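job 3f2a | input accepted
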Amino acid sequence: MSDSINGVFFNYLAMRYPAISARVAGEFGWDSALTGIEVIPSVSARNVPKVVFSYSNRNLDFTEKFFMRTAVTDKFHSWSARM
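job 3f2a | predicted structure (83 res):
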């Protein structure tokens, strides 16, 4: 998917779920930055894409990833732990 679609997903999810903004702030406190957002399309009949957030530590060569699945209809959503 294009970067503009990833940005749309991030903006939608960040406004809809305060936990995402809290995660970004928390990672910043650990000297990590949000370095990537990837939207992986759903392979099931329901349109439930996986949105992967990548955070890279500024001092270490380490990237941590978290993901969230959400339906376009807002019926199914959850904040998941590390991948």
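job 3f2a | The first strand starts at residue 32 and ends at 40.
job 3f2a | closed
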